[in-house]
Amino acid sequence: MLAGMLTPRHILANMIPSNKIGLQLYSLRNEIKEDLEGSLKKISDIGYKNLEAAGYSDGKFYGMDPIDFKTLIEDLGMRLTASHVTFHKDDVAAVLQAHREVGIDYIIWPWLNNEQRASIQSYQEVADKFNAIGKMCEDNGLRFGYHNHDFEFYPIDDKIPYDLLLESTDPKLVCMEIDLYWINYAGKDPLQYFENYPGRFELWHVKDMAAGEGKEMIEVGSGIIDYPSIFDHATTAGLKEFFVEQDIIKGDGFESVKSSFDFINSHL
């Protein structure tokens, strides 16, 4: 069913509060680079009150000290819930301290390089690493998770790497931030994963897919992903927070993320 073909049941069933609709700031990375404070003000004016960062480096968030960035976000009526970040072993203490100071709940590992996804053994090593990081996060009052793309769903030696990550990580230490565009892009059914691994998908990335072979990434409500049905299964999935993310935007970035916000706010 097309996401835009909604029934009154869907409109009444979920009723997501507008202050729960999140935005991954990577969507507006170019705008933020040009004008951080002005961009955040526009994001707040659209209605987003829940943010996920993708701009941590060397103890700072988008070039600002953690406490200063936290203050900026909160003064605009928003909260920072999660952060995408990768780091080396030697940097763990500094990363955890900065993320505690900025006040987030989730640290999310956003990507695996070619070496990390070269084989089933390398994925197993990733899973072991995630368990270790997850324990360190837990000890520091944070929650650790992993964000997928499409490559995790293509079999290696008759094993789907994403399944291995789910089965080899401790649910108490590692959650999943499921990107609902990329799992659909790979031809997999997110509802089946929710059923097979209930409670593991605490965070979601929400974006839509155009019909056709190109599978173009488009604004939520403009494509073929059945978001009403997916949100009907939020409890089974274990959903805590979700974020609109638009990796590629044609046209005005703020209009793009506003379109997704308005659809979710009106129809989900």
Strand content: 15-25%
Number of strands: 12
Q: Any low-confidence stretches, pLDDT <50, length ≥5?
A: 1-13
Q: What is the distance, rounded to the nearest whole angstrom, between the alpha carbons of the first and last residues?
A: 15 Å
| CATH architecture name | Alpha-Beta Barrel
Distinct helical segment count: 12
Helix content: 40-55%
Q: For this structure, what is the CATH homologous superfamily?
A: Divalent-metal-dependent TIM barrel enzymes
The SSE string, one letter per element, is HEHHEEEHEHEHEHEHHEEEHHEH
Radius of gyration: 18 Å
Structural class: alpha/beta
Strand order across the biggest sheet?
1-2-5-6-7-8-9-12
Largest sheet: 8 strands, parallel, barrel
* Basic shape: globular
Polypeptide structure, described:
The protein is an alpha/beta fold. The chain has helices spanning 8-13, 29-34, 36-46, 66-75, 92-102, 120-139, 161-168, 180-185, 190-196, 227-232, 234-237, 253-267; strands spanning 21-24, 50-53, 56-57, 60-61, 79-84, 106-109, 143-147, 174-179, 203-206, 208-209, 217-218, 241-244. The strands form three sheets. It has an eight-stranded parallel barrel with strand order 1-2-5-6-7-8-9-12. The protein starts with 7 loop residues before the first helix and ends with a helix.
Q: Short summary of the structure?
A:
With 268 residues, the protein is of the alpha/beta class. The protein has helices at residues 8-13, 29-34, 36-46, 66-75, 92-102, 120-139, 161-168, 180-185, 190-196, 227-232, 234-237, 253-267, and strands spanning 21-24, 50-53, 56-57, 60-61, 79-84, 106-109, 143-147, 174-179, 203-206, 208-209, 217-218, 241-244.
